[in-house]
Amino acid sequence: MPNPLTPQVLADPIALTRALVDIESVSGNEKEIADAVQEALEACAHLRVERIGHTVIARTELGREQRVVLAGHLDTVPIADNFPSTVDGKIMWGCGTSDMKSGTAIALHLAATCPDPRYDVTYFFYECEEVEAVRNGLKIVGDLRPELLEADFAVLLEPTYGIVEAGCQGTMRARVRTSGVRAHAARSWLGDNAIHKAGEVLRRLSDYQAREVEIDGCRYREGLNAVSIKGGVAGNVIPDACEIEVNFRFAPDRSEEQAEAHLREVFGGYEIEITDSAPGALPGLSAPPAAEFLALTGATPAAKLGWTDVARFAALGIPALNFGPGDPNLAHKPDEHVEIDKIEAGAELLRRWLAG
Ligand SMILES: [Zn+2]
After folding, report:
1. Which residues does 143 contact at the CB level (< 8 Å), separation at least 6?
2. Rounded CA gap, 250 and 284, in Å?
3. CA 308 to centroid of ligand 1, rounded, Å
4. What angle do CA 36, 355, 163 make, to 5 degrees?
5. Residue 26, exposed/middle/buried by CB under 10 A (0-12, 13-18, 19+)?
């Protein structure tokens, strides 16, 4: 089959979005789309193209003082009666239109049509973002060839509806345990009820005053919440154990160690076990390419509240933000769609930034 990513299609971010959406690429099935992207980029004399799994990496090597990353994932969540794409006036419908083939299309369009950018650029078109982290193409590249991630600034074109979302919050889960003494419920004074003791843990949670912090003009709002509770032996037994699982979403001015220390302080006197954790990412918007990008958008950035791949760059000390045409509220939904005007505006803005 001929490659649908022809030079004419690559030159038009809207046609390109549609062409990418119409290559089915549910996570794990990115071979066809990665082949098409790789072939299209290998035809560009100004790019050095590599492939790791179904992740395509294209770099300019112009000897510029700074290097920036533009990255988009190639995969989508499973199709929900929304494939292939349809267009109705100024709206394009279909799986991946918002998350994030419209963003990926902008990066691919720029890779193909911007041979002389003011910064060197590394473009990533990567696999398996929508599934467990071990399969994530950007993580795999970072593990195998960390030097390929090196840059002064990174833009991920995940859906943000055309606004800049910087940094991201960290997340930590922990189990807080209370213990007691098991006894027959008919002789409860011989026991010590661990579920009753959970009351104090829950009181600390409901009294908790979550912090709000402003970093580089972005407001981050933390949260500490119980997400599950377990306890009880039988209907006639005083329980000797109870476990409250909590989730802490923390602003990126705390490290994971500091977040853990904070939890141990909040739940002082109780046994606590950290079960899962991912660091946040500082917005780092004072780096020159980031500041130049923000000056062009003319808008104040918002804090990213979920966890995204920007944290991968932040962990390497590379400031990163999300900026994409899709509406994040439509991601993963059967009625997923993107506004064609947002694709045009996003492509235009990134072109002005890269072209200088
Ligand atoms: Zn996405």
Report:
1. none
2. 17
3. 8
4. 80
5. middle
Work out the burial of residue 2: count CB atoms within 10 Å of its CB; fewer than 13 is exposed, 13-18 middle, 19 or more buried. Answer: exposed
Residue 153: φ, ψ to 5°:
-170, 145
Convert the pLDDT of each residue in 61-99 to its tens digit.
Answer: 999 999 999 999 999 999 999 999 999 999 999 999 999
Q: How confident is the model at residue 23 (pLDDT cuts 50, 70, 90)?
A: very high
Cis bond leading into 100, ω under 30°?
Answer: yes
Ligand 1 centroid to Cα of residue 336, in Å, is 12
Mean pLDDT of 216-241: 94
301 band by pLDDT with thresholds 50, 70 and 90 = confident
Distance 159 CA to ligand 1 centre (A): 7
**Rounded CA separation 327/67 (Å):** 28
How many CB atoms within 10 Å of residue 268?
Answer: 9
How many other CB atoms sit within 10 Å of the CB of residue 293?
A: 23
User: What span, in angstroms and rounded, lies between the C-alpha atoms of 98 and 91?
Assistant: 11
* Confidence tier at 215 by pLDDT (50, 70, 90): confident
Q: Show which residues are catalytic.
A: 75, 129
Q: Which of 11-15, 139-143, 312-316 has the lowest mean pLDDT?
A: 312-316
Identify which of 296, 292, 355, 342 has the alpha carbon closest to the alpha carbon of residue 103: 342
Which class for 86: exposed (0-12), middle (13-18), buried (19 or more C-beta within 10 A)?
Answer: middle
User: 16, 105 in Cβ contact below 8 A?
Assistant: yes
Distance 131 CA to ligand 1 centre (A): 10
- The structure tokens listed for 190 are 């011989």
- 338 C-alpha to ligand 1 centroid (Å): 13
Q: How far is the CA of 27 from the centre of ligand 1 (A)?
A: 11
What's at 266, amino acid-wise? V
